[in-house]
From TrEMBL:
Record field: transmembrane: 404-428, 449-467, 537-558, 570-590, 650-669, 772-793
The protein's name: V-type proton ATPase subunit a
InterPro entries given in the database record: V-ATPase_116kDa_su, V-type_ATPase_116kDa_su_euka
Upper classification of the organism: Eukaryota, Metazoa, Ecdysozoa, Arthropoda, Hexapoda
CC terms in the record's Gene Ontology section: plasma membrane; vacuolar proton-transporting V-type ATPase, V0 domain
Amino acid sequence: MGSLFRSEEMTLCQLFLQSEAAYACVSELGELGLVQFRDLNPDVNAFQRKFVNEVRRCDEMERKLRYLEKEIRRDGIPMLEIPGECPEAPQPREMIDLEATFEKLENELREVNQNAEALKRNYLELTELKHILRKTQVFFDEHEGGANTTESMTRALISDDPNRHMGHVQLGFVAGVILRERIPAFERMLWRACRGNVFLRQAEIDTPLEDPSSSDQVYKSVFIIFFQGDQLKTRVKKICEGFRATLYPCPESPADRREMAMGVMTRIEDLNTVLGQTQDHRHRVLVAAAKNIKNWFVKVRKIKAIYHTLNLFNLDVTQKCLIAECWVPALDMETIQLALRRGTERSGSSVPPILNRMETIEDPPTYNRTNKFTSAFQHLIYAYGVATYREVNPAPYTVITFPFLFAVMFGDLGHGAIMAAFGFWMCYKEKPLQAKKIDSEIWNIFFGGRYIILLMGLFSMYTGLIYNDIFSKSLNIFGSSWRNNYDGSTLQSNQLLQLNPDSKDYLQYPYPFGIDPVWQLAEANKIIFMNGYKMKISIIIGVFHMLFGVCLSLWNHLYFKRRISIYVEFIPQILFLSLLFFYMVLLMFIKWTTYGATPGHFGSQDPEIVKTSAFCAPSILITFINMMLFKHDKNTRPQCDDFMFSGQMFIQKLFVIVALLCVPIMLFGKPYFIMREQKQRARQGHQPVEGNAENGTAGGAPVPASGHHDEEITEVFIHQAIHTIEFVLGSVSHTASYLRLWALSLAHAQLAEVAWNMLLRKGLMSNDYQGGIFLYVVFAGWAAISVSILVLMEGLSAFLHTLRLHWVEFQSKFYGGEGYLFQPFSFEIILDSAGQAEE
């Protein structure tokens, strides 16, 4: 129970392990997850530590597993999850077997991939050659048939000099394949480089071809280039090489082309068979690896974590014993001893491990035990700052106050039900949703806070009942306590009428639970009434919340034995808050109980009755301002009393004077007591204990120089001045800050009312079958606005404001948040973080 309200008591221990048993003992501690090791070799390079070779071997195994995983994912093979519990860390001798298995798999897979890539490249070449033989046959048919195209091409490539006699012209040609998107640039370059003395014909290959290196589908085109002379031939081949075009031999005679085409088709069929067998073999290897790869990852990561932890240890002079220092929770010492004993038995060692407690002046880490319910609230606290060691933990109180303050701003039975239903669904489907491992960051935020969302929804339903507000409408469950006593003609002739509580309009007993539903019909003064109600409720909740925070600071002072802080911090702070702001809250209750309706004396002019009627009710805000200014306004209503109770003016002046006297006590009290105790201890010849405790140093530390004393006192003065100013001014601003409860509640109610009046109300007023269609469309729009704006956006706004109220207004009264988190050596945490990094 202590760890719920305050962090666990931690102890620094020294651990002696025999070298042979160290691996097994650390493995057991990793399964336990309750030990945080310290690095005893901070000045030693990572590459010079004892177990660096083992860590490198684990890195190499992890690299091979990542390669296997990449190949498995590329083939779309499902990887089996680990059934049941995670496997234990294997023994060191099993590393050799794992390394051999991974080496064999990697080599086999690389060999298969290389063979498959070579076969695919060969297949690609044959496929391209097949397309070349098919497409170019058309070009040669035209050439042999003397088609006009060829004749014009021939004339273009023959010199125009009339003095030269030209015989039969024999054109050379090259054929190949090029990427389709390079054709335009390729054609322009040929034209410019060869000055128009070549003729290019190209045709697209309809089906995409697979690139053997990247496995991407690419579109290519077949081309054939006719030219005359060896010089142009050389130039054309260089251009083809520059554009990464692939050239293939193409026979000139049709018979040779047909013979080559038949040979190509035969080789393609053989290659298809071989490729199929290669892919089948690769698939079998990957399927076998996919069954165990998750298991292998866990084993390798555990081995690596163990050796990484062993690198934090020191070797004794005999090289036979490993020495470690670690933080452990005091309550778990026996559990850790049992784990060490199990590790020793597993290793077969005869020397038991030794775990000794150490005395230290170092601040221990902060460790709060949590479960799946409290962890989300604890993380809200850690987002502000990790608690100082053994400081009061705000998380248990936040479990109640956080959803309640949220609900005050979000109070609506309908919207709260939607939020609660979503939170309940996530809690009910918790295990299936966790198993899916959805990698969406937004979803993980919602799912991590599922219990917060559930409680916020439930509390919002409660405050919605208090406000009697469900989608901006009211529930008349118990029957209204108001009655209409106007006749029909009066109602028709007057647009704005009010029901008088000091008459028979009110039955003189309140609605049993929450706000009376009649206020939903009060168009004239509904907002005035709800403003007054919610504003006062916000101030009351805020003052009690801050007083509770100051009271928690007393718990801290008592635990840490800070006697001075109780006298010069807690008592002045609680007096300052109580005498000013708690008194203002008391005035609200006095006003509510003293002034009101006068049943049985409606309309009476009796002075005693008038004094307690609503007519004489004073303004609390004006009263509080006058109290701070030591003044009293002249009574403009002679039939009313000047004060709410006898002696009010004297009590208010006394309260303000005492509150103002608390300020110099908070400002100078602590430095004065520390300075006085330092002088007394200096006369006695040793260091002041109380002063050290106040300044965060441990008793028994060396006595600093006299100049150091002055500097410390100066720092205490500055520190105390900052905190005093922050508390005094913060008390005013923080009280006003709680008015956000009223403001956001009013905004949420008005937005819900606007959505109802502008959309759903018009849909409900429509008639006939067309009205049904219209209502269907309008309801869809209203539902979308309700969920997206009123639940999601308004919910996020209220959440952020609630977070601010807890961090600034509440926790600033007692929470230091200057600690550091306990980070135990835990396989579970290591494996989770590795899994998230992969995703």
